[in-house]
Structures are given as structure tokens and as C-alpha cells.
Amino acid sequence: MMKKQSQVNIVHSIDCGNYMKYRSFNGINYKNDQFFQGSSEFVDYYDEQESVKVIQTLDQELYTTQRQGLNFFYKLPLNKDSPETQNYMLTLYFAELQYSESNARIFDVYFGNKLVIENLDIYEKVGMRTAYIIEISFQIIGLQVLYKGEQINGALSKNYEFLIRFKAIKSLAAIAGIMLKIGDNQIEIANNENPKNTLKAIDGFKKLSDESLKIIESEVKEIQKDLQKNHANELDDPNNRRSLKKEIKLIEFSIKLLIILTRSPFGIVLASSYFGISLITLLQLFFNEKQTITERGKTKISKQN
């Protein structure tokens, strides 16, 4: 007996081409066809179900209704309150129920503007009247979509909708079902081959940034102590005090900027790069301030004489 699946992590499950809801053999509730736009139409093979038996599946009805078209897409609404970093698994259900030869129906699948499945020929893959399933992992960080370690454009709308596009090359593109599930955020996505965009790498950047901030804060405190200790007499001059406060405010602003940057994953990367520049700037600031105060002290002594 097939074990029923949980709906807990399912964001969307859609029976494409079906006007009605559908409950699968393993207990998944599929919505009627929705969230689609573009040049497409419902195609229903239900009347031919007696002669059109789809093999490799227990869900005949899921595959006997399809959405087909030249160029269409689905805009799947996502939860705006989701964690800033979220893994997803997209499952696409296909079956060739019209053509009995390869090279008859060929189409591409896109995430926004990114081609993720090229020259898909269902008959060539599994033959006619056979269920064919493709699973694709991807990641959303903030407002950016990552696929195989690459940031892709146009896959997430301003309204926080994920865009899947089907574009025909020969005949019409066809899709029988779509399921979008939340993945496990505790593990890296298998499809993200480039480690620089994995959760592990991001945690590493965050750790590096935290250490960088501590070092910068320590440097600032040392500079403040050194200025106050070595130039106590010169700081009696109001002009010198104003200059010093101005420079210290600049240092404090730099620290606050770094803290803000580390609140987002891409900011973390930027903050890590900024760390090296900040250290150089702090050192230059220290020596410039020391030289300026010394010169002002000499000028003051000269005027007194």
C-alpha cells in the first residue's frame, strides 16, 4: 500500500488543464488549473481515458488533462513572510499522449529568463503514454533566485511570485502537473554545484564578517585611546576637539554601515570585501589625524611665542 504524503511543505500542487480539484492516489490535493498566463489552452484527454492508459503512474487523471501552448507561464505566489533564505523543490509532471514518434513535440522550460530544461522531447525520454517526472531544486535568498549556484533574473516578480515559463519549439509545449515544495534549509541543495552559493558558504561569510567587525571595533577603540593619551594637551584646543569628533563620527558611521550590510546574505559578501578597505582607511585616518594635531600644536606654540 502506498504511503500518503503530507501537505505540510507543499506550497502549490496544480493539476494543469483540469477545471476541477484532484486528489492523488497518495493523498495529495491538487488545485484546479490556475496562476497561468500567455498563449495556451486546456487539453483534456479524459474522454479517451479508456484507450489512453498512462503507465508508470497510479494517477491517470493527473496526466490526462494538460495545459498546452506556444509560450505560456505560471506565476506561483510565495509567502512573503518566508525565511530570507529558503530552499524549494519544483516537480513537473509530463506525458506524451498525442504523438507516437520523437521530434514531434519539443519545448523548453525557463525559470524567468533562465533556461533550465532545453529541447525536452517527452517521447524520446520515455515513449508515448508514459508518466515522466522532473524535479528541480532551487533557492531563494531575499529577492534573488539561485539555480545551480547562479543568480537568475526574472524568476521572481515584484509581488513575490515564482515564474515558470514553457516555450514551444515544435508543436505545443505541454505540462500535466506542477508541485512546489519547501526544501530542507539545514542542508545544501544538490543542484547547487557551485559551493559559493550554498548555505554552508553563506554561514562562512557571516562568520567572517562577524570577526571582521570585532577587529574593526577593536581598532577604533585603540585609535581613540591613543589619540586621547598622546595628544591630551593639543585636545584642549576647541578646533582640535571638533576635528577629532568629526573623524570619530566617520569611524562610527563605517561600523554602522557594516552592521547593516551583514543583515542580508549579499550584504555579508560585500561587508567581507569592505573589511580590508576599512582597515586601510582606519590606519590612514590615524596617521593623518596624528600629523594634523601635531602641526596644530606646533602652530599654537609658535603663536604663543
Report on this structure.
It is found in: Endoplasmic reticulum membrane. The chain crosses the membrane at residues 266-287. Keywords: Carbohydrate metabolism, Endoplasmic reticulum, Glycoprotein, Membrane, Signal, Transmembrane, Transmembrane helix. Pfam families: Malectin (PF11721). This is Malectin domain-containing protein. This protein has 305 residues and is of the alpha+beta class. The chain contains five helices and 14 strands. Mean pLDDT is 77; it is low at 186-209. The protein is elongated and about 95 Å long. It has helices at residues 60-64, 122-126, 199-230, 238-261, 265-304; strands spanning 10-15, 22-23, 29-30, 36-44, 65-77, 85-94, 106-111, 114-120, 132-141, 144-147, 150-152, 161-170, 173-175, 177-182. It has a six-stranded antiparallel β-sheet with strand order 1-14-6-9-10-11. A hairpin with a 2-residue loop joins strand 9 (132-141) and strand 10 (144-147). Helix 3 (199-230) packs antiparallel against helix 4, helix 3 (199-230) packs parallel to helix 5 and helix 4 (238-261) packs antiparallel against helix 5 (265-304). The chain has two domains: 10-193, Galactose-binding lectin (Jelly Rolls, Sandwich), CATH 2.60.120.430; 200-304, no CATH class.
Spell out the key features of this protein.
single chain, about 300 residues, alpha+beta, Jelly Rolls, 2 domains, six-stranded antiparallel β-sheet, about 35% helix, Malectin_dom
